[in-house]
Design brief:
The chain has about 140 residues and is of the alpha+beta class. It has one domain. The protein has a five-stranded antiparallel β-sheet. β4 and β5 form a beta hairpin. The protein is globular.
Length: about 140
């Protein structure tokens, strides 16, 4: 890869990081919204993906946080309406060091799903949201 290509990729990464920070700023009320609107969790065994949605189904765009986490965002308000976590089995069983906080935040939600509860506690959703916020580069 030549210098121009690398510079272009670095600029894209900076822009994406700035956009993610704006999204996080717009979601300081995430815990309150998740409590008021309700949060639902679902695990897809075939795709090994945990999906958490907040509020009614709405049109959203997906943004990648890292190799594991994607957030669904309302384009106009930047409100997070969903969090998808890929590779849940590996994250819970043998997380790489950089994903350890994410794995610990997922444990109570995964435990709730094991007993067929599709409504994770607001506390568990907020813990996951705090961890997702920490994944966004400063």
């Amino acid at each position: 890869m030549d210098t121009a290509d690398q510079d272009f990729l670095n600029e894209l990464e900076r822009e994406h990081g700035a956009y993610l920070r704006r999204i996080m700023e717009a979601n300081a009320d995430f815990a309150e919204r998740a409590t008021a609107l309700g949060a639902r969790a679902e695990y897809n065994r075939d795709e090994d993906m945990l999906s958490i949605s907040v509020g009614p189904v709405t049109e959203a765009s997906a943004e990648s946080i890292d190799n594991y986490v994607f957030i669904s965002v309302e384009p106009e308000t930047l409100k997070i309406v969903g969090i998808d976590v890929m590779g849940v089995r590996d994250l819970l069983v043998a997380p790489p060091p950089e994903a350890e906080p994410l794995a610990r935040a997922l444990e109570p939600i995964a435990a709730a799903l094991l007993v067929d509860e599709q409504r994770p506690s607001p506390r568990a959703v907020e813990a996951l949201a705090r961890t997702v916020r920490q994944l966004v580069p400063a």
